[in-house]
Structure to design on (362 residues):
């Protein structure tokens, strides 16, 4: 089969590799579509950081060149001997996160915090290939939701947004501020609006703001434009109860802390690249909540992600308008994303095509 193989910084090659043989608890999928994200681009341009290229991963045991891709949708073509809940021909999504099911955190339903957590496409071979073997326990049958394979490939990033929303305890009477309307920010906008919250979105890119409006944001702010977030909140007489900092930028974090009123919940979705100073005294005296969020819980977040994706009548072409080939992964996917000039909110790859095609979302 053909696969994109990461060898090191700036070195991803399309190679012929053997089709994997599923273990007893795994499915073999023919990959329909797989998304790439900022983590993939970061590994390509400055890594390896998470990819176990030079040293064996402590959980997966993988070491050496690796096939990335952790946002996976595919059709089951074979099942391991112990698999009973999936059959050939099913369209499934894999959440990619592998947990033990036995540790302190797994037994409490927090599988994303498993002591032996690993992820397909980050710590062992993933989905940027024609076929991928995935643990059945990471998968959900997409069939009952009536979504297309391209839409199904958006389920993993949508589940990240769903988990962040759960961590923020968002409810219909909340006013949410979302800073950063890229991939996760866009999905979070839709999820929050569907939950009935009043949503304000801030982003530097006007086209992303336009899409955020279509996804349900009631208020839009472009920083350094005519009006700041603080001024917009004051003019509209809004008091945010939850702030989602998605950009991962120092400016975004500073803004979140600056606009947070007493008792506000700040969910730190974007990862800061360097340590930051925070005035903890103010956090205590105003009862701010700084909330971390990481990955997703497959049993609750992935199914909800599919439900949300299926609920949008207009489809998701504005988020992922095209699917590109493996041969175009670097030039039209990883490089533009790492250089912050990608024109797509989400880039999908179809390993079975030779040229870019329009996505099919309905």
């Amino acid at each position: 089969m053909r696969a994109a193989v990461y060898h090191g910084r700036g070195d991803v090659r399309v190679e012929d590799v053997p089709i994997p043989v599923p273990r007893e608890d795994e499915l073999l999928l023919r990959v329909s579509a797989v998304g790439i994200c900022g983590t993939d681009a970061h590994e390509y341009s400055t890594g390896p950081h998470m990819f176990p290229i030079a040293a064996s991963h402590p959980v997966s045991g993988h070491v050496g060149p690796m096939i990335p891709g952790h946002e996976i949708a595919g059709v089951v073509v074979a099942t391991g001997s112990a698999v009973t809940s999936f059959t050939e021909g099913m369209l499934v999504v894999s959440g990619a996160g592998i947990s033990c099911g036995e540790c302190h955190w797994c037994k409490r339903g927090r599988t994303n915090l498993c002591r032996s957590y690993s992820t397909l496409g980050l710590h062992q071979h993933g989905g940027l290939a024609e076929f991928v073997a995935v643990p059945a326990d990471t998968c959900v049958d997409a069939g009952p939701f009536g979504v297309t394979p391209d839409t199904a490939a958006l389920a993993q990033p949508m589940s990240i947004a769903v988990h962040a929303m759960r961590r923020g305890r968002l409810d219909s009477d909340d006013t949410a501020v979302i800073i950063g309307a890229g991939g996760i920010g866009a999905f979070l906008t839709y999820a929050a609006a569907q939950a009935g919250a009043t949503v304000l979105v801030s982003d530097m890119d006007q086209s992303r703001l336009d899409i955020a409006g279509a996804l349900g944001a009631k208020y839009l702010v472009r920083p350094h434009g005519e009006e700041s977030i603080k001024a917009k909140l004051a003019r509209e007489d809004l008091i945010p109860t939850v702030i989602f900092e998605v950009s991962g930028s120092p400016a975004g974090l500073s803004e979140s802390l600056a606009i947070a009123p007493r008792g506000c919940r700040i969910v730190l979705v974007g990862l800061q690249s360097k340590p930051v100073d925070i005035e903890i005294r103010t956090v205590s005296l105003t009862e701010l909540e700084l909330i971390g969020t990481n990955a997703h819980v497959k049993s609750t977040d992935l199914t909800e992600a599919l439900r949300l994706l299926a609920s949008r009548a207009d489809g998701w072409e504005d988020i992922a308008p095209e699917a590109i080939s493996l041969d175009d992964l670097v030039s039209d996917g990883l490089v533009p994303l790492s250089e912050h000039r990608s024109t797509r909110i989400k880039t999908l790859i179809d390993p079975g095509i030779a040229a870019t095609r329009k996505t099919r979302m309905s």
In short: The chain has a mean pLDDT of 97. The first strand starts at residue 2 and ends at 8. The chain has two domains: 2-157+296-358, 169-292.
